[in-house]
Amino acid sequence: MDEATERRGGFTRAGFRRGAKAALAITLGLSPFGLVVGMAADQHGLSLLETLLMSGLVFAGTAQLVALQLWTDPAPIVAASLACLVINLRMAPMGAALAPVLDRVSGWRRWGTLTVLVDNAFALTIAEMRSGRRDAAFLLGAAGVMWLNWMSMCAVGHVFGAAVKLPPGHPVFFASSAALLAILVPIWRGRADFMPWVVAGAVALLVHGGGLGAPWPVLAGAFAGAAAGAWRDRRIERPGP
Amino acid sequence: MTLRWDVLLAILGMAAASYLCRAGGYAILRATRPPPFVQAMLHYLPGCIFVAFLAPVFAGLGWPAWVAAGAVLAAQVRFGKLALSIAVGVGVLWGVRAVAGG
Fold first, then answer.
1. Confidence grade of residue A9 (pLDDT, cut at 50, 70, 90)
2. Using the beta-carbon criterion (under 8 Å), do A85 and B17 form an inter-chain contact?
3. Which of B4, B46, B93 sits opposite A126 (nearest CB)?
4. Same-domain pairing of A84 and A200
5. What is the dihedral of CA B50, B55, B60, B62, to 10 degrees?
6. Residue A212's domain spans which residues?
7. Domain residue spans in chain B?
8. What is the pLDDT of residues A108-119, one digit of tens each?
9. Do B49 and A102 touch (CB under 8 A)?
10. Based on the domain organization, do A113 and A223 belong to the same domain?
11. Do A183 and A213 fall into the same domain?
């Protein structure tokens, strides 16, 4: 990437395409979860139209699954909204961490791109950012492909779910964890990341072991790890007397 | 193809809550000009979010999944192809469970 495009960049067609391509590479990791959500929606009596409307507008698998587990007739408007608020709270720090990319665009390119922010697209964008490219269209391209895949898989799960019936522990469901794990490799920047990552994992395990459910292990672990890293960096910059 | 009013309202509420989370963190950051310590934290947040997300998941999965996790990381470091690493992980988990009789 030459310097000029770098500075001009911010929202390019090439970035969009690169993001879409990166997302296609992890389709296998994304698909099983969509099937599960489609099946769950069917089991809780949502029509195909309602299922697709929910998946299209909410676009957050774990939050949808939890909301569906709380589902009643008539629909639990407050409980379902609260479930989304609590479980998707982990995306608030993601948006903040994307500031170097989002600051370069404005209007719908900034606030519209944020509507489709999801974990995997975020991870790919951070990897892209760390290789020196700051293009918000990459995030939109990656998230856009994930959205299309999400909608198709939810539809398939809703329509054929009763016929497929994969048991919950099936190795295919490992694919979504494997996708996030693999993305950690390009996010890794070297030894400086080691200590914060260990702290993040340990605190998450502690909070999880203490019986707190989502999103608390993620939030506590992420902030503890990041604080540990920031604290160490400041000590190195300003060594004590 | 039915669409009930109560279901529609619940979906709209869920969508609004989710967007609040997606855009809220960035909006607060823009509005407040965070101190250097917070900016240093943002530097470390992305990796830490995923480690904190994955640690409890893998803790609950048992040793065949840990072997598969090792295979995913090794494949990603060696070949750098996400699609391949995911397929390797699923394949290894399948194989280990078959051998271990799970």
1. low
2. yes
3. B46
4. no
5. 110
6. 189-241
7. 1-33, 46-102
8. 999 999 999 999
9. no
10. no
11. no
